[in-house]
Design a protein that fits this description.
Chain lengths: ~475, ~1550
């Protein structure tokens, strides 16, 4: 149970980022993990609550108090086992998860939360350092073949779970590399891609086969997959971005974030990208205040942008939430990412009205301040804004999965264009089409990596049960 | 077979749970001189003991009373001549007293049986006599069951050589006649009973009030009827059902007390059947069976056993010593021969354990004995004309003081015997010395005994799984259902600290039968515990009475009294075997040269057979056991070491209980020992269960294997062997605790005692394998139990990835994903807090839905209930308002100490705002909280600045006063003022989290403020004893209720019970004891810290307890006069509704309001680290408290509104119309869950079939009979003092029926002047005579009671400022310091004041004294136990176990023989000489009325002591005091000062602090 009075004796120690000037020089991660000793102290702050709210705050229900305690006692290997028992990829979540567990931590009621994410980060990194992360191939094979369509976090988690109980799993990826959003959506400075590569190695050793450049429903017929496999799991991402229907949208220099970000990741990976969208020396405006917007900010600064401005149409959230009425749930509050710290003007309640430019190239952005009343937006008269904009990046979220794959399999969709499937009870994660399952963004819409892992794991159990009539995979 | 209207078992009511207790007494003439006066005196005693009995719903109906006398030869001779019967000379004929059926034909059949059996046994039927009676004073209910009473006269046959053998024959005739009548067709034998059947004694008894015995039986009025002895008994039963044959005396005894181990004792008697033989009884022995008939009272069973022993040749005292041995094993003061005697006899029979004062007689001698712990009172006196009087209290006969030559009491474990033939009293020492030296017991023991520990080592390597590999170990652990929590919460603390871990916040997990998880069979059983009708024991402080010694192997022939070659015995000091021990046991044949022979019975079977294979496997086990016994094996080891991937173990508990009961049934059980060697055993509860179902020793082999791999959890450097030792020590402590919870003191009696009930097991299964255990709601059977074991086994050896490198999460003790389901989840807490903080009804509904809708995950019994409409829905507006409904709500008893001042006051403010009630909990209340609030004040301005860390502003009309004042066993801060400020006074008999246990507030939680409220010293830990030391029985409870009612006549008196089987019967008894209110708590509630096994395994859900209480109260027609409250994890309006339908008037909530004010179920209350400032005393953490009264107010209104919505839906407008309407409940139809399917709630929903006129809810008030109180006269005379503080002196006589004198007067003082009271000696009351119980209870400052005479029990109970002086009357010639002057438990819970007793006090003097000064001239066992303050001077000898658990205060003991050290419990105190004045540099103030002063550090001891002795002389004229003062220099060195270690430390700290402060100034 950690140290009984640890939370009273020790303060929270957050991971220390490298200085901005230092980290802007490259695309490498800049947040080293805590030392073993620091981690143990932080672990001792955990109170081992009678009801660990963190565990339910966490979408994959990480058994946080247990590994906190194990780290405190110096039992790292067992801590890693416990961590892996709920999470296939702690190295991803330990870096990029917004850590809803910490907002649910009991200590946050009146103190700083236990540094759960930094402890997770330390455990898994130490695990890799020590060589404790090894393949766990199934002892017996089931003889069942399963296709996992999409190699993002949902697909990978699903594939790994299924392979470990003895199924033959093939992962299909439409791009040239495995990893989906992890590979091309998240900048390297947040998640270096070697983390993905070594997981793929582990999964190969566990018997998972990866096929890239296979866009099911586009260059591979869905029927072929259905014929070849005993079950199919659709785990594609929510890639259809929300557009900005304003005059001037067609101008050069106006791009979706997901046009901008993947290019840089490819460059870091050593590919040559023709006509890469660069922010170098430009006045960059990022529209959209979420995580993708942040990534655009960080990447633009690394390109050497002249200025970076970020707009959000919603009003500025409060710095502190009304904790008594919100804890342990996820609060709407102002979040400042490491990319913001690297230099960025932020503004809220701003709606873009028009983009203008010369020679088909964008030069200016025209916007107006808005007010929100009863959920409705109203422009504030006389609040027009006009500003320089050489590069406008649209990061306003994603509407739905790309539809081709869903249509190719002919699965029923919900009102938002996601594959329709329930998550518990009879036929969980099954689509309207026999033996076709769906999980992750493709089922629930745009979400966090940690939710993708959860759905991938749960769908794996659903498939296992479907094929074998019972399953030993955890929910 | 009864003249009773005792209802048959129905619903949850079961007549076998009935209890009784009573007043008992006898008079006898030492020289055997017979007189009619003796009988009259006996009857007079009865009348004066009347307050110890009870009346039922009908005031003309008593609980039963009776008298046993010698055969009145003259009377019979006269009367028989008239009827033409010729009697032989006295002694050559016997008389049978018979209760016969009213139906003539049935009566004739019964009489025929008697006639036949007399003849068959070769004796002579002389004739029949109708016993003349007069039933004119009877109530109708009694008349209805009045038997026809006749006497039969039997002449001695030719084959009986002497009266003894004739008496033996009469016994045989009675037994076979009783048996034959039971076998009569058509229930003709239904109303047949034989009160007595003897040539020496006769019993006149019945369903009578005490004063009716003499009036009803005309014989008793006839002056020709004479006897040299009269044994009388007045019964207090928990029911109101008239019953003639349950009255005492029985054939040889009258008993005041309770046999806690009855089930086991009866089973063991049955088990001995085949192995018993007797030279004296010969073939007749077989005719005695069934010796003990099912369905009798405990006293009747005891009587049966005693008769057998006496018939088998034991002398009466010898037999009594065998049945109720004194505590010998832990008594270093006992002489060797007597110890050998007890040691020898221990192997013969397990003690019949429990509180007991038993008076016994065979007509030639009469005597009495007391249980080992002295838990019942028994006082006696001897006169100069050879009369001996013994009774539960003194003052029952008016005997001129000048005639009395000795006044004494029966001491714990002691016996007192009058041999009427020899014409003398034989005292305990002589009697036992005689018996102990009659045979060479020590030599026999040495010759026949093996200690397992002393045998040479066997080869441990031969154990089948001596070394499990790592993976094997994990699989094996999983096969036995180990979870991670078993390691973390169970084994680690035990192996580290030698103690079981503590937890908090009760149990909100699913019941095992409702759980989706696979549970071990152990979890389906709940430990029973003592409440009200018998006291639990403190196994730590009163260790001297406890013993874990176990005998493995065959039991000797109980009646082998003539044997000269003692049978073998194999002993262990405690029943937990190490691997080494087990190896020895397996090789025992070799080690004992074949005298013992062990056989291992494998209790595993092929898993391939699945669950279906289990029944066969158990059957095979039984067959193997029979065969083994036939082959001469006398130790059977049930072992599951053969468990493997292919072999699954039968649950060890099932195997053990199954084999045990099989052997009992076959009469073979005492031919062999039974040992369990199982991997499943790890918790205290497991060991207790195996013991309870017959295991004489237990080897937890897998626990050892596991501990060996647990280095991560154990302190560095602790060897595996030491860790195991600590684990065994922890189990031992745990076992002692579980045993003592039920008031059982020896393992031997606990073994086979079955002190459990089952929840969720079906009756067929239970009756087959756990015969005699209660199970009330059916549930799973053998197949499901086996299925659960098989599933667990398959998961263990299967491919489950979660289990591949880790144990199951568990989740019993803390919420875990994939663990056990809990009621309190993150969402539930979040929703409740959000709802109450924002007063958002919608969010509350989301919360309530999470709790109420258990369709997916059923956790509670009520989750399975459906509510049916009573009629068409009614508009919500027409339903009783929420404002009215919330008045029925109360918060639970959480003491200031367990929770912070902020949390405590917030609850009080909230409850006062809504008109509900908050509860102080145990620990007093600050008088500041009684202030009227104007509005706008800050909390800190009322309570004190330094005492509040999170302040709040109060509203006009707010009140901080808790309406309910709790009186718990610790009596902390219970004063006249405290009681006077109550609307309700709650006696906590038990608490849901740890029924049967006391509490402990560790020193670090005793802040300055808490210490002040509890009259303690900051930093010194406080112990609450497991029992209330003034409640050892139901009539004691009645007395305490009476005391409290006197201390505040306006307050209603409540008794808090915990749900367990039989709680309904206890509730009925409580109603008869005149409580106004009773609370039934569920097992699951409980916010306090408690050992984990108690949180989990003791008590039952409130649905059961509440329903049983309602049914029993209605059946007894007592429901109307008592308010019934339920509590235990009540959370929503639906819970309230179901509570009401099952019978509750009121509702208690603890956890939910605590959550509303910020609790987040950390379950760390016991660690003082609550991070939200609720359950902590740490000032920094308390700053974080954010709860507001509005939050709690909002919560209760939400609940009430939810109730209203339900009421509208089901068509009920008034809340009163809900109460007891269990017909509106139904079980959910769609029960899909495989385990829950077998549940049957019909017993819960049952409604007794009584007329509509019988109340089903609270409708009337109790009559407390306060109008009789002597205090009315005192108050009237004291008005000038009360009104104007004018000194006044009152003179009066007093009798034993004047109880609780002074309490009501003190109430009048406290009401006017608070704790300060009146100036010294304002009211002086001079009394003459024998005071009734609780003399001077809660006596306030300014009142002095001078009693010339003597006191009974509880003198000075709760003394809070007054002065009590008791001295023998002038005309009495006894030597005061050699005679008893006051009874037991004097000064219990006293907080201040002083008292002087010229003479010796009984047991438990000054227990829990926290500030009074007392001088006494000698006292009994357990003096100054749990004392925390005050000064006690003892000018004579003390009993044993002095100062046990004494953490504060000082005692000075005059140790003339130098033996005090051996009688003192030195665990918490040090002994030192009293320093003389020359050493005293600083004389402190002595007249501090007991307040602690740091001059106790040794500076002014002599001064203090001399002042006390001088005061004693001044007040009492004590010769003893005079002598001491006259020879001070000689006596001073003989005084020993008893100084608690902790107290010294705290005083030193305070002294340093004070010096610092002085220097600073």
């Amino acid at each position: 149970m950690g140290k009984i009075t640890g939370f009273m004796e020790f303060d929270r120690l957050s991971e220390q980022s490298l200085p901005v000037a230092e980290r802007l020089k490259n695309y490498q991660e800049f947040i080293p993990r805590l030392t073993d000793e620091q981690t143990a102290v932080q672990g001792s702050r955990c109170m081992d609550c009678g009801i660990p709210f963190c565990t339910t705050g966490c979408p994959i229900n990480n058994i946080i108090p247990d590994w906190n305690d194990l780290v405190y006692r110096g039992n790292w290997k067992q801590a890693l086992d416990v961590l892996h028992s709920t999470n296939n990829f702690p190295e991803f979540t330990g870096r990029i998860c917004p850590a809803p567990c910490e907002t649910a931590c009991t200590l946050t009621i009146n103190d700083d939360a236990v540094g759960i994410k930094s402890i997770e980060h330390a455990i898994i990194d130490k695990g890799w350092e020590e060589g404790w992360v090894i393949p766990k191939p199934a002892q017996t094979k089931s003889g069942k073949k399963i296709a996992v369509v999409g190699s993002g976090p949902a697909g990978l988690a699903c594939a790994q779970q299924l392979a470990r109980v003895g199924h033959d799993v093939v992962v299909f990826e439409k791009n040239d590399r495995i990893g989906g959003l992890l590979r091309y959506g998240i900048p390297d400075f947040k998640l270096e891609k070697t983390h993905i590569d070594r997981r793929i190695e582990q999964m190969r050793a566990e018997g998972v086969e990866f096929r890239v450049n296979q866009n099911i429903g586009v260059n591979v017929p869905a029927q072929q997959i259905k014929d070849e496999f005993d079950a199919v799991v659709l785990t594609g991402g929510a890639e259809q971005p929300r557009d900005l229907p304003v005059p001037g949208r067609e101008l050069q220099g106006v791009h979706f974030a997901m046009e901008f970000l993947p290019q840089q990741n490819k460059v870091v990976a050593g590919d040559t990208v023709l006509d890469q969208i660069k922010a170098t020396g430009k006045h960059v405006v990022v529209i959209g205040g979420g995580d993708t917007g942040s990534d655009c900010v960080g990447t633009s600064n690394r390109h050497g942008a002249a200025s970076v401005t970020q707009f959000e149409v919603m009003p500025r959230p409060p710095e502190q939430e009304n904790k008594p009425l919100i804890w342990p749930y996820w609060p709407m509050k102002l979040r400042t990412s490491s990319s913001h710290d690297e230099g960025c003007q932020r503004d809220w309640a701003v709606a873009t009205k028009e983009l203008t430019g010369k020679n088909g190239k964008v030069e200016k952005l025209h916007a107006v301040r808005v007010e929100w009343k009863d959920g409705k937006m109203q422009e504030v008269p006389g609040s027009e804004i006009e500003m320089k904009a050489d590069l406008v990046l649209l990061a306003m979220g994603f509407i739905s999965p790309v539809q081709q794959t869903l249509e190719a399999f002919g699965v029923e969709k919900d009102g938002r264009g996601n594959a329709k499937a329930v998550t518990d009870g009879v036929g969980y994660y099954q689509t309207s089409v026999d033996k076709v399952f769906a999980a992750g963004d493709m089922r629930r819409g745009q979400s966090l990596v940690v939710w993708a892992i959860r759905e991938g794991r749960q769908a794996a159990r659903a498939v296992d049960e479907y094929l074998m009539s019972s399953s030993s995979l955890p929910l | 077979m009864s003249h009773s209207s005792l209802p048959v078992q129905q619903g949850l009511y079961d007549p076998r749970h009935e209890h009784d207790a009573c007043g008992v007494g006898f008079v006898a003439h030492i020289k055997g001189k017979q007189s009619h006066d003796m009988i009259c005196q006996g009857l007079q005693i009865l009348k004066n003991l009347e307050h110890r009995g009870a009346v039922g719903a009908d005031p003309l109906e008593g609980d039963g009373a009776g008298i046993l006398v010698q055969i009145p030869d003259a009377l019979f001779r006269k009367s028989c001549v008239a009827q033409g019967i010729s009697l032989p000379t006295a002694g050559e004929y016997g008389v049978g007293m018979l209760f016969l059926p009213r139906d003539a034909a049935a009566r004739a059949a019964c009489e025929q049986v008697i006639t036949d059996k007399i003849t068959e046994e070769g004796q002579v039927l002389l004739g029949w006599r109708d016993v003349p009676v007069d039933n004119s004073g009877f109530g109708e209910s009694v008349k209805a069951v009045e038997p026809v009473i006749r006497q039969v006269f039997i002449g001695c046959g030719t084959d009986c050589a002497d009266v003894d053998s004739f008496e033996r024959k009469l016994f045989v005739i009675r037994k076979i006649a009783e048996h034959a009548v039971r076998c009569l067709p058509n229930e003709q034998g239904q109303s047949f009973y034989i009160p007595s059947f003897s040539a020496r004694t006769i019993v006149y008894k019945g369903m009578l009030l005490a004063n009716q015995v003499g009036k009803y039986y005309l014989d008793l009025q006839d002056e020709i009827m004479v006897s040299a002895l009269a044994l009388v008994h007045q019964r207090f039963s928990t029911n109101t059902f008239p019953s003639w044959d349950l009255a005492h005396p029985f054939h040889m005894i009258a008993h005041n007390g309770e046999i806690n181990t009855l089930r086991g004792n009866v089973n063991w008697m049955t088990a001995r059947h085949a192995a018993m033989s007797s030279k004296l009884l010969g073939a007749d022995l077989e005719k005695l069976w069934p010796l003990i008939v099912e369905g009798q009272s405990d006293s009747a069973c005891f009587d049966n056993a005693l008769e057998l022993l006496v018939a088998g040749g034991y002398s009466l005292p010898h037999a009594m010593m065998l049945l109720i041995p004194e505590a010998w094993s832990g008594n270093p003061l006992m002489d060797e021969e007597r110890r050998a005697f007890y040691e020898y006899h221990a192997a013969l029979m397990e003690p019949w354990d429990g509180p007991a004062a038993v008076a016994f007689t065979d007509g030639r001698m009469i005597g009495a004995t007391l249980d080992r712990n002295g838990l019942r009172p028994a006082r006696y006196l001897i006169t100069d004309d050879d009369l001996v009087l013994m009774a539960s209290e003194m003052g029952v006969l008016d005997i001129p003081q000048s005639k009395i030559v000795k006044k004494w009491r029966l001491q714990p474990g002691k016996m007192f015997l009058i041999d009427l033939q020899a014409g003398r009293i034989i005292d305990d020492d002589e009697l036992k010395q005689q018996l102990a030296t009659a045979k060479p017991y020590r030599e026999w023991i040495e010759k026949s005994r093996y200690f397992l520990g002393d045998l040479p080592n066997a080869d441990i390597k031969k154990l089948p799984n001596e070394s499990l590999s790592d993976t094997n170990l994990l699989d094996t652990q999983q096969a036995f259902g180990y979870s991670q929590e078993d390691i973390k919460f169970i084994l680690a603390p035990m192996a580290t600290a030698g103690e079981e871990a503590t937890g908090s916040m009760g149990n909100d997990a699913s019941l095992p039968v409702l759980s989706g998880k696979n549970k071990v069979l152990y979890n389906y059983f709940k430990q029973l515990f003592a409440q009200v009708t018998n006291p639990p024991i403190d196994p730590i402080r009163e260790e001297i009475v406890m013993s874990l010694t176990s005998f493995i192997g065959p039991k000797p022939n109980l009646l082998g009294i003539d044997e000269t070659d003692p049978p073998l015995r194999l002993e262990v000091h405690q029943p937990v075997l190490s691997d080494e021990d087990l190896a020895k046991l397996r090789e025992i044949s070799t080690l004992t040269q074949g005298r013992y022979k062990a056989l291992v019975l494998d209790i595993t079977y092929p898993v391939a057979l699945g669950a279906a294979g289990c029944a066969g496997a158990i059957k095979a086990l039984s067959v193997a056991a029979d065969q083994a016994v036939a082959d001469g094996c006398n130790v059977l080891i049930l072992s599951d070491r053969a468990v493997s991937s292919t072999r699954v173990a039968i649950p060890a508990l099932l195997a053990c209980a199954g084999v045990h009961h099989h052997l009992v049934r076959e009469g073979l059980r005492t031919s062999t020992g039974l040992v369990v060697d199982s991997g499943s055993v790890r918790e205290t509860h497991h060991f207790a269960l195996l013991a309870g179902y017959g295991a004489e020793a237990i080897c937890p082999w897998l626990a050892y294997e596991t501990i060996a791999t647990m280095s991560d959890y154990l302190p560095a450097g602790l060897s595996g062997k030491d860790a195991n030792k600590r684990f065994i020590k922890a189990v031992n402590k745990g076992l002692l605790k579980v045993m003592s919870k039920m008031g059982i003191s020896t393992y031997q009696s606990y073994c086979g005692g079955q002190i459990f009930e089952a929840i969720g097991l079906n009756a067929d299964f239970v009756s087959q394998y756990f015969t005699g255990t209660a199970t009330q709601i059916e549930g799973i059977g053998l197949h499901e139990v086996a299925e659960e074991a098989v599933r667990t086994h398959q998961a263990a050896f299967g491919n489950d990835p979660v289990l591949s490198n880790a144990l199951e999460a568990g989740g019993e003790y803390a919420y875990r994903v994939r663990g056990e389901e809990h009621m309190w989840t993150p969402d539930v807490i979040a929703k409740l807090q959000h709802a109450t903080r924002s007063n958002n009804g919608q969010t509350y509904k989301e919360y309530a839905k999470l709790i109420n809708d258990q369709t997916q995950h059923i956790k509670t019994l009520r989750g399975l209930f459906e509510i049916k409409p009573a009629g068409a829905p009614v508009p919500l507006a027409e339903v009783e308002s929420a404002k009215e409904i919330v008045k029925r709500f109360a918060t639970g008893a959480m003491s200031l100490g367990s929770i912070s001042t902020e949390a405590h006051t917030t609850l009080a403010i909230a409850m006062n705002r809504i008109g509900g009630k908050s509860n102080t909990g145990e620990g007093g209340e600050d008088a500041m909280r009684f202030k009227t609030i104007e509005g706008g004040e800050k909390l800190s301005e009322i309570i004190g600045k330094g005492r509040i860390e999170a302040d709040q502003i109060l509203l006009p009309g707010d009140s901080l006063r808790s309406k309910i004042k709790q009186v718990a066993s610790g009596r902390f801060g219970v004063t006249a003022e405290y009681l006077s400020s109550a609307d309700q006074i709650q006696i906590k008999m038990a608490q849901g989290a740890k029924p049967g246990e006391g509490g402990q507030l560790p020193g670090h939680k005793v802040s300055e403020y808490i210490a002040k409220l509890r009259f303690a010293i900051p930093g010194v830990g406080l112990i609450s004893p497991p029992p209330h030391h003034d409640i050892y029985s139901i009539e004691d409870l009645a007395q305490l209720i009476h005391d409290l009612k006197n201390a505040n006549p306006r307050a209603s008196i409540s008794v808090k019970l915990v749900s367990e089987v039989g709680v309904g019967t206890v509730a009925a008894g409580v109603a008869k004891a005149k409580a106004d209110h009773v609370t039934v708590s569920g097992h699951d509630g409980g916010t306090g810290a408690s050992p984990l096994s108690s949180i989990k395994h003791a008590g039952t859900p409130w649905e059961l307890g509440l329903a049983e209480a309602q049914q029993t109260l209605v059946l007894n027609r007592l429901r109307g006069r008592i308010v019934l409250q339920v509590d235990g994890q009540l959370k929503t309006g639906r819970d309230v509704l179901i509570g009401a339908l099952l019978g509750a008037d009121e509702f208690g909530f603890a956890t939910a309001p605590l959550v509303a004010e910020g609790c987040i179920m950390m379950r760390k209350c016991h660690l003082n680290t609550c991070p939200v400032g609720v359950a902590t005393q740490d000032p920094d953490l308390r700053k974080k408290f954010t709860g507001q009264p509005e939050h709690v107010v909002n919560y209760f209104f939400f609940v009430a509104e939810e109730v209203r919505e339900y009421m509208a839906q089901i068509g009920i407008r008034k809340f009163n119309d809900l109460i007891g309407r269990s017909e509106l409940l139904d079980a959910k139809h769609a029960l899909a869950h495989w385990k829950a399917k077998g549940l049957d709630f019909s017993k819960i929903f049952h409604q007794p079939d009584v007329p509509v006129s019988v109340a089903r809810r609270h409708v009337e008030e109790q009559d407390h009979g306060l109008s009789q109180a002597l205090d009315h006269q005192l108050i009237a005379e004291a008005m000038p003092a009360l009104e104007n503080k004018l000194p006044i002196i009152i003179e009066s006589r007093i009798r034993n029926v004047n109880r609780t004198v002074g309490a009501m007067l003190s109430h009048e003082v406290a009401k006017r002047y608070g704790q300060a009271g009146l100036p010294n000696d304002t009211i002086t009351v001079n009394l003459q005579g024998t005071a009734g119980q609780s003399f001077g209870a809660f006596l306030a400052h300014g009142i002095t009671l001078n009693l010339s005479g003597e006191g009974n029990d509880y003198v000075g109970k709760g003394l809070c400022g007054g002065r009590i002086v008791v001295l023998p009357p002038k005309e009495c010639n006894i030597v005061a310091e050699e005679n008893i002057i006051v009874g037991n438990t004097v000064l219990y819970g006293a907080t201040s004041g002083e008292c002087y007793f010229r003479g010796v006090a009984g047991e438990r003097f000054a227990v829990r004294n926290s500030g009074a000064i007392a001088v006494v001239e000698g006292l009994g066992d357990h003096g100054c136990e749990y004392m925390t303050g005050g000064i006690v001077a003892v000018l004579g000898q003390t009993g044993r176990n002095f100062a046990a658990g004494m953490s504060g205060g000082i005692a000075y003991v005059l140790d003339e023989d130098g033996g005090f050290e051996h009688r003192c419990n030195l665990a918490m105190v040090q002994l030192e000489p009293v320093p003389d004045e020359a050493d005293a540099s600083d004389l402190g103030e002595v007249e501090t009325h007991g307040r602690v002063h740091f001059n106790h550090l040794g500076k002014a001891d002599e001064h203090v002591l001399r002042d006390m002795v001088s005061a004693h002389l001044r007040y009492t004229g004590s010769v003893r005091a005079q002598d001491i003062l006259n020879n001070w220099a000689r006596y001073l060195p003989k005084f020993v000062k008893v100084m608690p270690t902790e107290y010294r430390r705290a005083l030193q700290e305070i002294a340093v602090e004070q010096t610092k402060q002085l220097e600073a100034v």
